[in-house]
Amino acid sequence: MRKQIGQSIVGFIILFPIVFLLILSFGKQWFYPHILPNLWQTSQWESLFSPSFQLTKSLGLSLLLSISVGLVSTVTAFYFSKKIAYSYNKTTWLSLAYVPYLLSPIIFAVLIHFYFLKTGLSGSLLGVIIAQFLICFPFGIIICSTFWTAQIQSLENLSSTLGGSSTQTLKRVLLPLAKSTLLLCFFQCFLISWFEYGLTHFIGAGKVKTLTVSVFSYVNEANPFLAALAGFLLILPSVLLLLANKKLIFKTSNKRPDYE
Prior knowledge:
There is one protein chain. A two-stranded antiparallel sheet has the order 1-2. The chain is about 75% helix and about 0% strand. It has two domains: about 1-40, no CATH class; about 55-255, MetI-like (MetI-like fold, Orthogonal Bundle), CATH 1.10.3720.10. With about 260 residues, it is mainly α. The longest helix has about 30 residues, at about 55-85. Helix 3 (about 55-85) packs across helix 6, helix 6 (about 125-145) packs across helix 9 (about 180-195) and helix 11 (about 210-220) packs antiparallel against helix 12.
Protein backbone atom coordinates (compact mmCIF):
# COMPACT_ATOMS: atom_id res chain seq x y z
CA MET A 1 0.00 0.00 0.00
CA ARG A 2 2.76 2.42 0.95
CA LYS A 3 4.63 1.52 -2.22
CA GLN A 4 1.55 2.32 -4.34
CA ILE A 5 1.05 5.63 -2.54
CA GLY A 6 4.71 6.49 -3.04
CA GLN A 7 4.51 5.64 -6.74
CA SER A 8 1.37 7.76 -7.10
CA ILE A 9 3.07 10.73 -5.43
CA VAL A 10 6.13 10.40 -7.67
CA GLY A 11 3.90 10.07 -10.75
CA PHE A 12 1.95 13.18 -9.74
CA ILE A 13 5.15 15.18 -9.20
CA ILE A 14 6.42 14.16 -12.64
CA LEU A 15 3.17 14.61 -14.58
CA PHE A 16 1.80 17.76 -12.93
CA PRO A 17 4.24 20.25 -14.54
CA ILE A 18 3.64 18.70 -17.98
CA VAL A 19 -0.16 18.78 -17.63
CA PHE A 20 -0.05 22.31 -16.22
CA LEU A 21 2.03 23.54 -19.16
CA LEU A 22 -0.45 21.93 -21.55
CA ILE A 23 -3.39 23.65 -19.80
CA LEU A 24 -1.59 27.00 -19.67
CA SER A 25 -0.76 26.82 -23.39
CA PHE A 26 -4.49 27.27 -24.11
CA GLY A 27 -4.76 30.38 -21.94
CA LYS A 28 -5.42 33.91 -23.16
CA GLN A 29 -5.84 35.94 -19.97
CA TRP A 30 -4.82 35.12 -16.42
CA PHE A 31 -5.32 37.47 -13.50
CA TYR A 32 -4.95 37.06 -9.77
CA PRO A 33 -6.59 35.40 -7.79
CA HIS A 34 -7.68 32.88 -10.46
CA ILE A 35 -5.93 29.52 -10.14
CA LEU A 36 -6.35 28.89 -13.87
CA PRO A 37 -6.62 31.31 -16.81
CA ASN A 38 -10.01 33.01 -16.92
CA LEU A 39 -9.99 33.26 -20.74
CA TRP A 40 -9.06 30.49 -23.15
CA GLN A 41 -8.04 30.26 -26.80
CA THR A 42 -6.60 27.80 -29.31
CA SER A 43 -4.84 30.34 -31.52
CA GLN A 44 -1.38 29.41 -30.19
CA TRP A 45 -1.83 25.79 -31.23
CA GLU A 46 -3.43 26.78 -34.54
CA SER A 47 -0.48 29.08 -35.30
CA LEU A 48 1.86 26.17 -34.65
CA PHE A 49 0.78 24.63 -37.97
CA SER A 50 1.83 27.78 -39.85
CA PRO A 51 5.38 27.58 -41.30
CA SER A 52 5.83 31.32 -40.72
CA PHE A 53 5.17 31.05 -36.96
CA GLN A 54 8.43 31.63 -35.05
CA LEU A 55 7.78 28.79 -32.62
CA THR A 56 7.26 26.38 -35.53
CA LYS A 57 10.60 27.46 -36.99
CA SER A 58 12.25 26.98 -33.60
CA LEU A 59 10.76 23.49 -33.28
CA GLY A 60 11.99 22.48 -36.73
CA LEU A 61 15.41 23.99 -36.08
CA SER A 62 15.74 22.17 -32.75
CA LEU A 63 14.80 18.85 -34.35
CA LEU A 64 17.28 19.38 -37.19
CA LEU A 65 20.03 20.42 -34.79
CA SER A 66 19.50 17.62 -32.26
CA ILE A 67 19.15 14.88 -34.88
CA SER A 68 22.28 16.09 -36.69
CA VAL A 69 24.34 16.29 -33.51
CA GLY A 70 23.00 12.95 -32.30
CA LEU A 71 23.79 11.13 -35.55
CA VAL A 72 27.25 12.63 -36.04
CA SER A 73 28.19 12.10 -32.39
CA THR A 74 26.98 8.49 -32.40
CA VAL A 75 28.77 7.49 -35.61
CA THR A 76 32.07 9.14 -34.70
CA ALA A 77 31.93 7.98 -31.07
CA PHE A 78 31.33 4.38 -32.15
CA TYR A 79 34.35 4.49 -34.48
CA PHE A 80 36.77 6.17 -32.10
CA SER A 81 35.59 4.22 -29.05
CA LYS A 82 36.83 1.06 -30.77
CA LYS A 83 40.25 2.63 -31.30
CA ILE A 84 40.34 3.67 -27.65
CA ALA A 85 39.09 0.32 -26.32
CA TYR A 86 41.81 -1.60 -28.17
CA SER A 87 44.63 0.87 -27.41
CA TYR A 88 47.28 0.55 -24.69
CA ASN A 89 46.29 3.94 -23.24
CA LYS A 90 42.59 3.12 -22.88
CA THR A 91 42.29 4.49 -19.33
CA THR A 92 43.99 7.76 -20.24
CA TRP A 93 41.82 8.38 -23.29
CA LEU A 94 38.63 7.56 -21.41
CA SER A 95 39.66 9.91 -18.61
CA LEU A 96 40.09 12.71 -21.16
CA ALA A 97 36.49 12.12 -22.31
CA TYR A 98 35.30 13.45 -18.94
CA VAL A 99 37.26 16.71 -19.22
CA PRO A 100 34.53 18.77 -21.01
CA TYR A 101 32.12 18.01 -18.16
CA LEU A 102 34.41 19.55 -15.56
CA LEU A 103 33.23 22.95 -16.83
CA SER A 104 29.74 24.36 -17.21
CA PRO A 105 28.59 24.70 -20.84
CA ILE A 106 28.67 28.51 -20.72
CA ILE A 107 32.29 28.54 -19.45
CA PHE A 108 33.20 26.01 -22.13
CA ALA A 109 31.53 28.28 -24.71
CA VAL A 110 33.57 31.27 -23.53
CA LEU A 111 36.80 29.28 -23.91
CA ILE A 112 36.09 28.19 -27.50
CA HIS A 113 34.25 31.32 -28.67
CA PHE A 114 37.46 33.00 -29.88
CA TYR A 115 38.06 30.25 -32.44
CA PHE A 116 34.47 30.41 -33.65
CA LEU A 117 34.82 34.16 -34.17
CA LYS A 118 38.06 33.66 -36.11
CA THR A 119 36.49 31.06 -38.41
CA GLY A 120 33.23 32.97 -38.86
CA LEU A 121 31.19 30.17 -37.29
CA SER A 122 29.80 32.30 -34.47
CA GLY A 123 26.12 33.04 -34.97
CA SER A 124 25.63 30.21 -37.48
CA LEU A 125 23.82 26.88 -37.34
CA LEU A 126 26.99 25.04 -38.34
CA GLY A 127 28.85 26.70 -35.48
CA VAL A 128 26.22 25.57 -32.97
CA ILE A 129 26.31 22.02 -34.37
CA ILE A 130 30.10 21.90 -33.98
CA ALA A 131 29.95 23.38 -30.47
CA GLN A 132 27.32 20.88 -29.34
CA PHE A 133 29.26 18.08 -30.99
CA LEU A 134 32.24 18.95 -28.79
CA ILE A 135 30.00 18.32 -25.77
CA CYS A 136 28.18 15.22 -27.06
CA PHE A 137 31.11 13.40 -28.67
CA PRO A 138 32.97 12.66 -25.39
CA PHE A 139 29.71 11.44 -23.84
CA GLY A 140 29.21 9.15 -26.84
CA ILE A 141 32.73 7.80 -26.35
CA ILE A 142 31.91 6.94 -22.74
CA ILE A 143 28.72 5.09 -23.76
CA CYS A 144 30.12 3.24 -26.78
CA SER A 145 33.31 2.17 -25.01
CA THR A 146 31.24 -0.24 -22.90
CA PHE A 147 30.38 -2.22 -26.04
CA TRP A 148 33.95 -3.18 -26.93
CA THR A 149 34.48 -6.12 -24.58
CA ALA A 150 36.76 -9.14 -24.86
CA GLN A 151 33.83 -11.16 -26.22
CA ILE A 152 33.27 -8.66 -29.03
CA GLN A 153 36.95 -8.74 -29.92
CA SER A 154 36.81 -12.55 -30.01
CA LEU A 155 33.85 -12.40 -32.38
CA GLU A 156 35.74 -10.00 -34.66
CA ASN A 157 38.71 -12.34 -34.74
CA LEU A 158 36.44 -15.31 -35.42
CA SER A 159 34.79 -13.48 -38.32
CA SER A 160 38.20 -12.69 -39.82
CA THR A 161 39.32 -16.30 -39.38
CA LEU A 162 36.25 -17.51 -41.27
CA GLY A 163 37.12 -15.20 -44.18
CA GLY A 164 34.89 -12.22 -43.44
CA SER A 165 36.13 -8.80 -44.53
CA SER A 166 36.16 -5.82 -42.19
CA THR A 167 33.07 -4.43 -43.94
CA GLN A 168 31.20 -7.73 -43.64
CA THR A 169 32.19 -8.02 -39.97
CA LEU A 170 30.89 -4.52 -39.32
CA LYS A 171 27.57 -5.02 -41.15
CA ARG A 172 26.77 -8.61 -40.19
CA VAL A 173 28.32 -8.94 -36.73
CA LEU A 174 29.12 -5.66 -34.97
CA LEU A 175 26.21 -3.41 -35.96
CA PRO A 176 23.45 -5.95 -35.09
CA LEU A 177 25.07 -6.52 -31.69
CA ALA A 178 25.63 -2.80 -31.13
CA LYS A 179 22.08 -1.76 -32.04
CA SER A 180 20.99 -1.10 -28.45
CA THR A 181 24.22 0.73 -27.61
CA LEU A 182 23.98 2.92 -30.71
CA LEU A 183 20.35 3.81 -30.03
CA LEU A 184 21.16 4.57 -26.40
CA CYS A 185 24.06 6.80 -27.49
CA PHE A 186 21.89 8.60 -30.04
CA PHE A 187 19.07 9.21 -27.54
CA GLN A 188 21.47 10.58 -24.93
CA CYS A 189 23.26 12.88 -27.39
CA PHE A 190 19.91 14.00 -28.80
CA LEU A 191 18.68 14.95 -25.33
CA ILE A 192 21.90 16.81 -24.49
CA SER A 193 21.57 18.84 -27.69
CA TRP A 194 17.81 19.29 -27.26
CA PHE A 195 18.05 20.86 -23.81
CA GLU A 196 21.30 22.77 -24.32
CA TYR A 197 20.78 26.51 -23.78
CA GLY A 198 23.94 28.28 -22.56
CA LEU A 199 26.29 26.96 -25.23
CA THR A 200 23.69 27.37 -27.99
CA HIS A 201 22.78 30.91 -27.01
CA PHE A 202 26.41 32.02 -26.65
CA ILE A 203 27.87 30.44 -29.80
CA GLY A 204 24.69 31.14 -31.77
CA ALA A 205 24.88 34.82 -30.72
CA GLY A 206 21.09 34.89 -30.38
CA LYS A 207 20.64 34.16 -34.10
CA VAL A 208 20.07 30.42 -33.80
CA LYS A 209 16.67 30.41 -32.11
CA THR A 210 16.15 26.87 -30.90
CA LEU A 211 13.21 25.82 -28.76
CA THR A 212 15.14 26.29 -25.52
CA VAL A 213 16.17 29.80 -26.57
CA SER A 214 12.53 30.57 -27.45
CA VAL A 215 11.32 29.42 -24.02
CA PHE A 216 13.62 31.87 -22.25
CA SER A 217 12.71 34.61 -24.74
CA TYR A 218 8.99 34.22 -24.04
CA VAL A 219 9.64 34.16 -20.30
CA ASN A 220 11.63 37.40 -20.55
CA GLU A 221 8.81 38.91 -22.61
CA ALA A 222 6.35 38.00 -19.81
CA ASN A 223 4.32 35.89 -22.25
CA PRO A 224 3.38 32.88 -20.09
CA PHE A 225 1.07 31.28 -22.64
CA LEU A 226 3.59 31.04 -25.48
CA ALA A 227 6.25 30.12 -22.92
CA ALA A 228 4.00 27.27 -21.73
CA LEU A 229 3.44 26.08 -25.31
CA ALA A 230 7.17 26.19 -26.05
CA GLY A 231 7.91 24.45 -22.75
CA PHE A 232 5.40 21.69 -23.47
CA LEU A 233 6.87 21.14 -26.94
CA LEU A 234 10.32 21.06 -25.36
CA ILE A 235 9.33 18.41 -22.81
CA LEU A 236 7.16 16.12 -24.97
CA PRO A 237 9.83 14.62 -27.29
CA SER A 238 12.25 14.28 -24.41
CA VAL A 239 9.70 12.32 -22.34
CA LEU A 240 9.15 9.91 -25.24
CA LEU A 241 12.89 9.48 -25.72
CA LEU A 242 13.46 9.00 -21.99
CA LEU A 243 10.88 6.20 -21.96
CA ALA A 244 12.59 4.57 -24.93
CA ASN A 245 15.94 5.19 -23.26
CA LYS A 246 14.75 3.45 -20.10
CA LYS A 247 13.68 0.37 -22.06
CA LEU A 248 17.05 0.25 -23.80
CA ILE A 249 18.95 0.53 -20.53
CA PHE A 250 17.02 -2.37 -18.99
CA LYS A 251 17.33 -4.35 -22.22
CA THR A 252 21.10 -3.97 -22.39
CA SER A 253 21.54 -4.70 -18.67
CA ASN A 254 19.19 -7.69 -18.41
CA LYS A 255 19.86 -9.36 -21.76
CA ARG A 256 23.63 -9.49 -22.00
CA PRO A 257 24.50 -12.14 -24.58
CA ASP A 258 26.91 -14.86 -23.54
CA TYR A 259 29.59 -15.47 -26.15
CA GLU A 260 31.73 -17.78 -24.12
